Each structure stands twice: as C-alpha cells, then as structure tokens.
Amino acid sequence: MKAIVITGPGGVEVLELREVARPVPSYGQVLVRVHATALNRADLMQREGKYPPPPDAPKDIPGMEFAGEVAELGAGVTRWKVGQRVFGIVGGGAYAEYLVSHERLLAEIPSAMGYASAAAVPEAFITAHDALVTQAQLRASELVLIHAVASGVGLAAVQLVRALGAIPFGTARGKGKLDRAKELGLEAGWAATNDMSELTAHAKRWSGGRGINVVLDLVGGAYFPASIEVMAPLGRLMVIGTIAGRDALIPLGRVLSSRITIRGTMLRGRALEEKIAATRAFEEQVVPLFARGVLRAVVDREYPLADVRAAHSRLESNETVGKIVLRVT
Ligand SMILES: NC(=O)c1ccc[n+]([C@@H]2O[C@H](COP(=O)([O-])OP(=O)(O)OC[C@H]3O[C@@H](n4cnc5c(N)ncnc54)[C@H](OP(=O)(O)O)[C@@H]3O)[C@@H](O)[C@H]2O)c1
C-alpha cells in the first residue's frame, strides 16, 4: 500500500510517499481502507522527532484520525460488516491507504457526510466533547472560554458548547478568525495581543462580572495564568494544548479562593479502554448531531496524500481555520 513515511526527524522534506506493507488485522481488529485523513499538531511534532507514537502504532507513519470503509474483519469482530463507512482515532498510521483499528474504536459515518468532512471530525470532536462533557461536566447556560478558537479543536468546541445550551467565548490572534468562529456560534471574542492582562476586562464584560465557568486552554504558556484570573468560583480549567509554552506560573491564591479545578487531558496516550469509552460517548452523543445538521465539520483545505509537505506547511503557517484534510483515494 501507499503511505507517507517519516524518513527521519526534520522539516517537511522528511515526509515521503512510499510503498509499505499493508497491516493485518488481529483478533478484534478491523482493516480499514482509508479514504481521507486529517492533520494534527502532534503530526508536526512527530515529524520533528519530538513526539514518539504510542507502542501500538506504526513508528514512522503519522496520522491520528481517518474516514474510510471496512475492508476486512479480524477474528472475533462482531460490530462491523465489510463495506461499512467508518471514522475514528488511531495512535498513528492514518496517512496510508490501510490501517487497523480495534472494532470498538470505530463509529459509523452519517450517511449524508462525505469522507473528507468525516476525516475532519474525530480528533477535534472527541477531544472537545471529552473535555467539555466527560471531564469538565459542562452544564447548560454556563460560560466557556476557548483559546485558539478557530483551531480544529476550537471550532468543534464552539459548536458543542452551543449544542449543549452553554455560551462560547474565545480568543484568536486575529479578528478574521474570530469572525469565522462567530459564524459557527461564538458569542464574542478577543483578538489576543501579547498583553494577556487585557483578557480580564473582556471576560468581565462577557460574564457581567460573574466570571467564566469552563476554560479550554488549547494554547498554554501565558494563556494559562490569564485564564485562572477570569474564572468564576468552582470554575474548571482544561489544559489541552501547550503550543505557546509548556511552563507557566500558577496564581495559587486565585485557585484557592475560587476553588478552581485544573485538569490536564491527552487523548493519544490513553489506554485502549479509555479511548474506547471516549469513542462510544462520541458515537452516542456527537455523531447524531452531525446527522441532524446541528454540527458540521470545518475543513480549511484539502490536499491529495502526495501533497503532504504542502499540507504540513499550511498547518505550520497558523493561518488555518478548522482542519486540513489529506485525500487518500
Ligand atoms: N490533549 C489532547 O488530547 C489534544 C488533542 C488535539 C489537539 N490538542 C492540542 O490542542 C491545540 C489545538 O489543536 P488543533 O489541532 O485544533 O490546532 P490547529 O487547528 O492547528 O490550530 C492551532 C492554532 O493555535 C494558535 N496558535 C499557534 N501558536 C500560538 C501561540 N504561540 N500563541 C497563541 N496561539 C497560537 C493559532 O491560531 P491563532 O493564530 O489564531 O492564534 C493556530 O492556528 C494544539 O495545541 C494541540 O496540540 C490536544
């Protein structure tokens, strides 16, 4: 089969389209013919040699999400038939014509959704849903602040927050991105500057002085302490990304007096059973909202698999709104 291989740590030039062996499904696994996959920041880090994949994933083929069809069943598989359209997350290996997945890590693609749109969904929506619902236990009418709101995860979160009856606010480093997020339900946003202390006045205005109940911090660095400053009593801060820095000062007095919960989350490194639980929650609570037109995939650009270098450069530009998709077929 054809696959994109990381030939060594480095820039986009280390990504090569090669012929490699097709994986074989073992007990409980499904062979998926991949029609489309999508990019994640983790792919960039893996390419640079800074983020080794988990042991059960191919070590040199990136790709953490996919949309495709069931091509072959391993022994013991009961949930699927050959030809069914499926999407999901994997530890790696999705930049390829075929991959293997545990049968319970797959969800069925709604009939009206094409493969390119479907590939843009799993990582962003499972991450956002798991953080908002399973971990932060978001309630209707609460206020949510999402940093890097026009990112793949950010725009998934905006839509989910609305669907749950809560109110999404956001930051991005540009008004154009905030405007795009408003088309998907963002209530209001701040075009972030380097002075994070400005966030406090915006959050005060948005919340009428009550504070923000849940923050999805997709950025880290200076965004982290600034987020704590704007939180309501009993607020929940989800640390999801550290793109602006892995270290931050914690205003402990605020954490203590407002009784704030800080939780870190990571999808890729979880045990199989935890990934299955997140996928099942996605299948039951999120996928039906796509079928009903409440949620939609946001695709920034689509590239053929062979143009993976251009796709990685586009993601690195920080100009994207939503997801970058690679067409495999
Ligand atoms: N924990 C998990 O399981 C998990 C899962 C998926 C993703 N993530 C993380 O969540 C974050 C979002 O992922 P994604 O795939 O949705 O991202 P994405 O679509 O690639 O968007 C990331 C955005 O972050 C903003 N950004 C980049 N550098 C920044 C900086 N120094 N300061 C402030 N903003 C910056 C940029 O938007 P602006 O230029 O508009 O600011 C950029 O477009 C990433 O950090 C990713 O690693 C975590």
Quick description:
This protein folds into two domains: 2-121 and 270-327, Medium-chain alcohol dehydrogenases, catalytic domain (Quinone Oxidoreductase, Chain A, domain 1); 124-264, 3-Layer(aba) Sandwich (Rossmann fold). The protein contains eleven helices and 15 strands.
CATH class of the largest domain: Alpha Beta
Query: What number of structural domains do the residues give?
Result: 2
With helices defined by DSSP (H or I, 4 residues minimum), what is the helix count? 11
Mean pLDDT: 97
The molecules bound to the chains, other than polymers, are: NADP nicotinamide-adenine-dinucleotide phosphate
Beta strands, count:
15
Protein model, in words:
With 329 residues, the chain is an alpha/beta fold. The protein has 2 domains: 2-121 and 270-327, Medium-chain alcohol dehydrogenases, catalytic domain (Quinone Oxidoreductase, Chain A, domain 1, Alpha-Beta Complex), CATH 3.90.180.10; 124-264, NAD(P)-binding Rossmann-like Domain (Rossmann fold, 3-Layer(aba) Sandwich). Helices cover 30% and strands 26% of the residues. The protein has 11 helices and 15 strands. Strands 3, 4, 5, 6, 7, 14 and 15 form a 7-stranded mixed beta sheet that branches. A 6-stranded parallel beta sheet has the order 10-9-8-11-12-13, sandwiched between helices. A two-stranded antiparallel ribbon has the order 1-2. α3 crosses α4 and α3 (122-135) crosses α9. The structure holds NADP nicotinamide-adenine-dinucleotide phosphate (NAP). Residues 40-41, 123-124, 127, 148, 150-154, 172-174, 177, 218-219, 240-241, 243-244, 265-267, 315, 318, 320 line the site of NADP nicotinamide-adenine-dinucleotide phosphate.
